[in-house]
Amino acid sequence: MPVAVSYEMAGPNDGPTVVLAHSVGSTRAMWEPQVPVLADAGFRVISYDARGHGKSPVPNGPYAMDDLAEDLTALLDTTGTERAHIIGLSMGGMTAMALTARHPERVASLALLCTSAFLQPAQFWLDRAATARSAGTAAMAKVVVARWFTAETCSAEPELVAEAVAMVASTPDEGYAACCEAIAAMDLRAGLPAVAVPTLALAGAEDPATPPEHLAYIADHVPGALLAVIPDAAHLANLERPEQVNTALLAHLELARR
Q1: pLDDT digits over 120-138, tens only?
Q2: DSSP state of 79
Q3: Which among 96, 232, 236, 230 has a CA at the least distance from the CA of 161?
Q4: pTM, to two decimals
Q5: Is the Cβ–Cβ distance between 227 and 215 less than 8 Å?
Q6: CA 186 to each of CA 43, 85, 95, 116: distance values in angstroms, whole numbers, following the listed order
Q7: For residues 200 and 112, is the Cβ–Cβ distance under 8 A?
Q8: DSSP states of 181-244 as a string?
């Protein structure tokens, strides 16, 4: 059963729709560097909190990646969106790939940031789920965020890091745990060759969570996909190197719009 997720809209109502899907442990707030740029470029921008995160409901687990995809499908219906350009980072990218496999007619293009079609070992994610339920997300927030940014950014931008830690710590324990279980069980590789929309696979050069080879795999298996690597960026490349990411996204969307 789809969840009615919490969302926000920006930009002109008659513009092409872009949907922003966030990572596990974050909220739609992680897209703050992108929303005004995309809106100013004429896009109708929808950012939302995935189930179990932010202001969205927190149903009991287990969740599957298909559940997250159906939540996104329901959001498209709620906002009167026939087709959307989907931009997803990490879990958001996985959700975007799952949506494309299930409902390809709803997707105009894909931008897959710092993500993977198959992220093993599963036990890593199952252990994270167990920790979230036993100790809480606040106890693990600093460990999670240590993989989001490079050491240089952690040293130079402590406020950015503190905001990210607070975001993880505020994530409901069950929502985080159930999404980790969805990632553990996910395998989206078989659907990649059938993707028939313009696709950008964007990696952070120093991402320890989804290294560039994961994005290269996606680009190699989606027909016509482009691969871009953002230097000096870890897992949340959109926050760490917003100008470079925004430039790549706008170029991708312009190409897709043509």
Answers
A1: 999 999 999 999 999 999 9
A2: T
A3: 236
A4: 0.97
A5: yes
A6: 31, 22, 10, 10
A7: yes
A8: HHHHH---GGGGGG--S-EEEEEETT-SSS-HHHHHHHHHHSTT-EEEEETT--S-HHHHSHHH
